[in-house]
Amino acid sequence: MKVNDVLSGVPIDAPELPDSVNPFLRTELLVDAQITRILVDVMTGSVGVLLELRQALHLPANTGLLRVHGVAQQNWLCTSTANEFTAWSITGATVYQRPGEFQLAAQCLPAGALRVVGTSADFTLLDAAALASAPPDYRADARELIRFGVADENTQCEPVGIARSVQSDSAQFDSEEFGAA
Prior knowledge:
globular; single chain
């Protein structure tokens, strides 16, 4: 399976993450994770945040994908001087969730912030076997080594576990509600 399969909603067979590694319940778990890509899927109204986890030693995988559904807002803000070729380390995160509503706000170094608002979210831990045990050196390695040293949407991976935000029946697709037979 590829990261893009997870992003597009291909059903995956993975156990539920225990509370001890569920970032929706313990946002401090996202600290030290690095944002490498923000993928917007306009057709499905979802946003995927691809995370490098080899620096986040408290999570049992090397890659993560936070997928927000029913997206109403997605903002990435950073200073113009911070646009170097690097991953963005999460230094703090806040998750707000209730049935039918999910919000994530993450503060990042160097000088960035991410905010995503939608109806629900899931967080999938992934093992990308092709990655080295340590992430690339963003200051010393060539761009090609960096680009191929982190997961992207085409990386082969195996799901380790999944967590889901608070859900409600109204957040689920109901074909009768939309007039389907």
